[in-house]
Amino acid sequence: RVGVWRRRLATGGAGLKVGISWQGGTPKSRQTARSIPLVQWLPILSAPGVQFVNLQYADSATELAELEAATGFKIVDWPEARSEYDETAALLCALDLVISVCTAVIHLGGALGKPVWVMAPYSPEWRYGIAGEKMPWYPSVRIFRQPGYAAWGPVIANVAQSLRDLAQGDLPWPH
């Protein structure tokens, strides 16, 4: 299955293949604190040489279409990759990197040893700790933390710069 996803990703051309998820949780599990509206991802999505793949669990076809119409940014959307967790795992294994807010996809990617960047709120769940860039059980996960409550701007800027550096070969891999 990983090979199937690698071949599908290859049809998008050269460059990094990066899976993204921008909304986490439910209203009862701090969804507001764990989510970043997709339009705020524009600095990240503008990184040259990157193909983005939707890892968002909920149906986001309308949101993706609106983003593409407004900005021209196309995020590849394969709902079948999210319909079964085995398929999601295979796709993650085929990707170069996952960038996400705090969701299960962080833990799946970390457990698979894939490079994962997580954008964590100022006061995250206990699994993410309260300081530092690493998670003790997932060495491949890097945490980008809010410097203050609801301060996503600096996190997005840091992730966007790190992604540009990675795509240009200026950042050691994996990071």
Polypeptide structure, described:
- The chain has 175 residues and is an alpha/beta fold.
- It is built from eight helices and seven strands; from the N terminus they run αβααβαβααβαβββα.
- It has helices spanning 2-10, 31-34, 42-45, 61-71, 80-83, 85-94, 104-111, 152-167, and strands at 16-21, 50-54, 75-76, 97-101, 116-120, 134-135, 138-145.
- Strands 3-2-1-4-5-7-6 form a seven-stranded mixed sheet.
- α4 (61-71) links the parallel β2 and β3.
- α1 (2-10) crosses α6 (85-94).
- The model has no long low-confidence stretch (mean pLDDT 90).
**Share of helix, binned:** 25-40%
- Structural class by secondary-structure content: alpha/beta
Tell me the β content.
15-25%
Q: Enumerate the strands of the largest sheet in spatial order, edge to edge or round the barrel.
A: 3-2-1-4-5-7-6
Number of strands: 7
Low-confidence parts lasting 5 or more residues at pLDDT below 50?
Answer: none
Mean pLDDT: 90
Radius of gyration: 15 Å
Order of helices and strands: HEHHEHEHHEHEEEH
Overall spatial form:
globular
Sheet having the most strands: 7 strands, mixed
